[in-house]
Amino acid sequence: MNKTLRVVLFNVARFSRLKATWTGVSLPKTRRKVRSRIDMDLKHRENPVVTKLDSPEFKSIFTSEVQELRRLFDKYNYEIRIAGGAVRDLLLGQKPKDLDFATVATPQQMKDMFTVENVRMINMNGEKHGTITPRINDKENFEVTTLRIDMVTDGRHAEVEFTTDWKLDANRRDLTINSMFLGFDGSVYDYFFGYEDLQKRRVAFVGDADVRVKEDYLRIMRYFRFYGKIAEYPNRHEEDTLKVLKNNVDGLQNISGERIWVELKKTLQGNFVGNLLKTMLDVGVGPYIGLPQNTDITELNIVLKRAEHLALHPVSYLVALLKDIDDVTVLYDRLKFSGYDRDMAYFLVENRKDQVSDRPLLPYEKLVLNTKIKQQNAIDYVKEVLKYKGEETLLKQFSNWKIPQFPVSGKILKENGVPPGKMYGPIIMKLKNIWIESEYKQTAEDLIKILPDIIQEVHKNKNNQ
């Protein structure tokens, strides 16, 4: 960790003032909304089966563990279907990364069934929301959730009521493209026209968008994530939808930074990143996720023009909206992203300015060779800086650079009369810089010859402090 980072992280008083810039408004009061019959009686398909899958991607999901899960539920006469994102992905011709399941069985019925069948259950934290996680064949975990209705919501949490009605469960979900189910025979069940929306690459909320967003304000962020995943064009948002998001954006302040970052990071790894980020700012998301008030997008536009095609890390897009390391501190405190991502943000802000050198790669080599952080992280960060700056030639050269081994160690210093202690660090640093400037040609013997002069210089500097 460099000196600047330590100063920022421990400057608590200033940090507290910066934290207040998340938003200029006070925390909104908790809004409890009770589910009404109108909410649960939306226009829907009478016959929900819209197609039957028989694709290679569909067939590939039937591992022996999935088949065993199905066998258990069939044995006890509990209907079970694949739910949510996996259905969407299969309809797009993609093999889903993971499978979630929905069932008419209650959590207690599932627990009784798995206990009788000697199936181990893990992560019981989800039980209050209706989710049981069996470990099938002691090999694979599956989340199986009882059909439910979110009866009372406050924008973050929901009080649920279990049901056996598949339509009512589909009705509680956020987007139509995420509200479909898939039977083990390949039948796709779609109650709220998500199948058509998926064909049109349309991202729409189930029923009333305002109702859906108020149930969980994180859905504002999920809208943008799925737009980047599904849509064919960068700016074909429906104005009514954007208006709803804008009217509800203050609700994000009560959503945890960790949850926001999960959605935002995926958005910044998808399609149309620049357009989506600017649209998010237009609807007012910025101050509620830790970005500065009245964000200047000039730097973002520059970065997009020169580097969007270089597969930038999500942090790079956010850094383009930040002026200095203080802004990084505020953003980190809000989103609580990982230490790796935090240090990358600091590194980018500190090193994104143009470097002047007769050897263009030299400043970046120094950043790696003189780093105080894990060397591999420094290598990753330098690559990201070069991407951010659109320095494709330097990026290629740096990627091919073989890191040289500094030939002088503490042992060599001791053997040449330097007593162990605080002198070692400054002496090695000066020797290393001389070695770097020589393009790594000097040997240990070459550097030992100038050691007396270095020792004298270090002593002189110390005495002058």
UniProtKB/TrEMBL annotation:
The keyword Secreted does not apply. Its cofactor is Mg(2+). Residues 238-285 form the tRNA nucleotidyltransferase/poly(A) polymerase RNA and SrmB- binding domain. Residues 81-203 form the Poly A polymerase head domain. CDD domains: NT_ClassII-CCAase (cd05398). Keywords: Magnesium, Metal-binding, Nucleotide-binding, Nucleotidyltransferase, RNA-binding, Transferase, tRNA processing. Coiled coil: none annotated. PANTHER family: CCA TRNA NUCLEOTIDYLTRANSFERASE 1, MITOCHONDRIAL (PTHR46173:SF1). Belongs to the tRNA nucleotidyltransferase/poly(A) polymerase family. This is Poly A polymerase head domain-containing protein. It comes from Chilo suppressalis (Asiatic rice borer moth).
